[in-house]
């Protein structure tokens, strides 16, 4: 299901804004982040909007020692989306993807639909199948 919503111009968190505006639990709305590993590879990480990405955990499951958030320009160029609207689906390049294990406790999760103000609702298993994501403990609260 695809759901558009009105953006809050004052918001500093698109994901929390989506949860609030759509009346969703923040733990069910996942942000899509691009990270760069110490070997230069880019990866996609999906974590709830009320958590932060544990970069050490991401590096570990990606088989490297370090990870850092990708520069905004790099993330936008690689994904084809603007930050705040990066979807895990339909990116320009298919990147290795990882999703926080908390998704598996939910019947449905919500991810960006490819632009700010658009959410996609789907079963975690469907998102994992579509992105070939690996499930791991990635979120810090």
From TrEMBL:
Top-rank taxon, per record: Bacteria
This protein's UniProt keywords: Lyase, Protein biosynthesis
Name by which UniProt lists this protein: Cys-tRNA(Pro)/Cys-tRNA(Cys) deacylase
InterPro entries documented for this protein: Prolyl-tRNA_editing_YbaK/EbsC (IPR004369), YbaK/aa-tRNA-synt-asso_dom_sf (IPR036754), YbaK/aa-tRNA-synth-assoc-dom (IPR007214)
Domain YbaK/aminoacyl-tRNA synthetase-associated: from-to ranges: 17-129
Keyword Isomerase included in the entry's annotation: no
KW Protein biosynthesis (keyword) present: yes
Coiled-coil residue spans: none
Family: Belongs to the prolyl-tRNA editing family. YbaK/EbsC subfamily.
Any Pfam family hit: tRNA_edit
């Amino acid at each position: 299901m695809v759901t558009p919503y009105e953006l809050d111009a004052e918001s500093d968190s698109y994901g929390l804004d989506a949860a609030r505006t759509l009346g969703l639990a923040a733990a069910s709305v996942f942000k899509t982040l691009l990270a760069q590993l110490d070997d230069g590879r880019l990866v996609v990480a999906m974590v709830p909007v009320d958590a932060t990405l544990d970069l050490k955990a991401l590096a570990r499951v990606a088989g490297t020692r370090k990870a850092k958030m990708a520069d905004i320009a790099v993330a936008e160029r690689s994904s084809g989306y603007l930050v705040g609207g990066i979807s895990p689906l339909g990116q320009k390049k298919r990147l290795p993807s990882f999703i926080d294990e908390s998704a598996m406790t939910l019947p449905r999760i919500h991810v960006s639909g490819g632009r700010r103000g658009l959410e996609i609702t789907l079963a975690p298993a469907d998102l994992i199948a579509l992105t070939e994501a690996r499930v791991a403990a990635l979120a810090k609260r």
